[in-house]
Write a structure and sequence with these properties.
The structure holds two protein chains of two kinds.
Chain A lengths: L12 H23 L1 H7 L1 H14 L14 H8 L2 H18 L22 E5 L4 E7 L1 H6 L9 E11 L5 E6 L1 H12 L3 H11 L5 H15 L2 E6 L10
Antiparallel strand pairs in A: 1-5, 2-3, 3-4
Chain B lengths: L6 H5 L2 E4 L5 H5 L7 E5 L9 H10 L4 E4 L13 H14 L4 E4 L2 E4 L2 E7 L5 H18 L4 E3 L14 H12 L2 E5 H11 L3 H7 L5 E6 L3 E3 L2 E3 L8 H14 L4 E3 L8 H15 L1
Parallel strand pairs in B: 1-2, 1-12, 2-3, 3-4, 4-7, 7-8, 8-9, 9-12
Antiparallel strand pairs in B: 5-6, 10-11
Helix pairs in contact in B: 5-6, 8-9
Classes of the chains: A alpha+beta, B alpha/beta.
């Protein structure tokens, strides 16, 4: 490309193109550092810059907004650096979605009382669009809560967390037990309760599934994680993001 | 398409870039400016705080939408999803004006997040102007295109930057956002006289100005928006006022953003010149 650039004064075509070349990586690294500040703190600026450059080379931006540039960063860190860093970046990405994800009102905490037991199989449940459920194999949740100050990122037994939108668009994080995670994880993919129940019965004691679902839904409603519960509702016409 | 400029924008003389450090003041309507300019892509989100901020801001101020990713000069097809999202944002917030840059920003599906210069040639005029016209047809309104700061020029350019800019604007029947800092930066980097540029641009096309700061690295000036407006740019602004009359002007600061009071000193400079 330098051969197509006009020479003028003491600045060579290559030096002129370097302005663009350098700005490209600086801008993308800055976008990642903005979106993953705790990951940057744990990695250190130098290592983070190296990761950002490698990530940028492997994942050219496909969106007009820099906001989307980091959408594969957690998976990339998990594969290329360490699963623990992937955990941490996944939490930060979920927190970012809390900040500017779709708006929705939480269903009333008593909403389930509106339905008879016979109606439950035909219920359709839509989780809040900014709720993210994650499975961690590290203490990344503690590291994130402490903003990376005074705590090492290290391996931990597998556990589950939920991140969702609190007051003033603040991200909230709480641990989720195995049963509740299993139920909500299925419902996130299968909003029709009858189908979700069948899937759960394939993995858990079928006799226990109704109780587990009831417990998980009551807890989710109390946290404000459910946007709607309707009978036979189709979500096909609702906006997707 | 007519050349009429939205009358509200003619009245709205002085604007300031809406950036996170001034969100709180903007939400409460406490910034003494006539309008605020936002980077469109920062608000192309499904919901959450950015749009809540903009709802509040819009209750106090008119806003101008300034985009950086429309890719008017590129060879990838125009992004229909982008234009749809922009149209939705326009419907919701009814901006005074829509602007983007005379450049390319994407190639082969990859966004470069930079404003890259075009070759100044006849066939490129046709290409870019037709894309601008397509955008204007889609959005149902005239847009403003902004001149770039650039650090490299193509060897096969057959005309001056301002000749290219004028030809594109006339063929597309669009308006111009003349960034005076960008003229100063490019004049230094490519060895032309900023006044030659200014004097060539027809006044009836100029709908808005940007004023900003730049930095110098080695022999090149770089459009960093991280310094106060430079003396050279103020001088060019004085000349622009003489040539074009009162044109809405926006102070841009994107990095190393000082306290609001400091930004308002630059706003006051504009007011004093307008008095």
């Amino acid at each position: 490309m330098a051969g197509q650039v006009r020479s003028l004064g003491c600045t060579s075509p290559n030096d002129r193109l370097d302005v663009y070349r350098n700005a490209y990586f600086i801008r993308l690294e800055a976008a990642l550092a903005h979106d993953f500040p705790v990951t940057e703190k744990i990695l250190g600026k130098k290592n983070f810059a190296r990761c950002a450059a490698d990530y940028a080379l492997a994942n050219p931006s496909g969106s007009p907004s820099l906001r989307e540039f980091g959408h594969r960063f957690a998976n990339w860190l998990r594969a290329e650096e360490s699963p623990m860093l992937g955990d941490l970046a996944a939490i930060e990405w979920a927190a970012l979605n809390v900040f500017d994800g779709p708006d929705a009102n939480a269903a009333d905490a008593q909403r389930l009382h509106a339905f008879t037991p016979e109606e439950w199989p035909s219920l359709h449940i839509r989780l809040m669009p900014t709720l993210t459920l994650l499975t961690l194999g590290s203490n990344a949740d503690r590291v994130w809560l402490e903003k990376g100050e005074g705590i090492e990122l290290e391996a931990a037994p597998v556990h589950y967390i939920a991140i969702w939108r609190g007051e003033q668009y603040r991200p909230m994080l709480v641990g989720v037990d195995t049963d509740n995670h299993a139920v909500l994880d299925i419902i996130a993919r299968e909003p029709e309760l009858a189908v979700a129940s069948e899937r759960l019965a394939e993995e858990l004691d079928p006799a226990s599934v109704p109780r587990r679902i009831a417990t998980a839904l009551h807890r989710a409603l109390a946290h404000g994680w459910i946007a709607s519960i309707e009978i036979g509702h189709s979500f096909a016409d609702e906006p997707r993001y | 398409m007519s050349l009429a400029i939205n009358k509200e924008i003619v009245v709205a003389e002085i604007g300031l870039g809406l950036r996170p450090p001034v969100y709180a003041d903007a939400r409460s309507g406490e910034i003494p400016v006539d309008w605020l300019e936002l980077i469109t892509e920062n608000f192309m989100v499904p919901g959450g705080q950015p749009l809540a901020v903009l709802d509040d801001v819009r209750s106090h101020y008119p806003v101008a939408f300034h985009g950086v990713s429309m890719n008017l000069g590129g060879t990838d097809p125009l992004d229909e999803n982008y234009l749809k999202a922009l149209n939705d944002l326009v419907d919701r917030f009814e901006p005074l004006s829509l602007s983007d840059h005379l450049c390319w920003t994407r190639h082969g599906g990859h966004h470069l997040h930079d404003l890259l210069p075009l070759p100044y040639a006849e066939e490129v005029i046709v290409h870019v102007a037709d894309r601008i016209a397509q955008v204007q047809d889609t959005l149902g309104r005239q847009i403003l295109i902004e001149n770039l700061s650039s650090y490299a020029e193509f060897d096969w350019s057959s005309m001056k930057e301002w000749e290219f800019l004028i030809a594109v604007a006339e063929r597309a029947d669009c308006l111009l956002l003349l960034d005076l800092n960008n003229i100063v930066v490019s004049a230094h980097n490519h060895g032309f006289d900023p006044m030659t540029y200014l004097n060539a641009i027809p006044a009836e096309r100029v709908a808005q100005h940007h004023l900003a700061g730049h930095s110098t690295h080695s022999a090149l000036k770089i459009d960093t928006h991280d310094h106060p407006v430079s003396k050279d740019v103020w001088h060019l602004y004085d000349a622009a006022r003489t040539r074009y009359g009162p044109v809405p002007v926006c102070i841009e600061r994107d990095d190393n953003i000082p306290p609001l009071a400091e930004l308002l000193e630059e706003v006051e400079h504009v007011r004093q010149r307008a008095a």
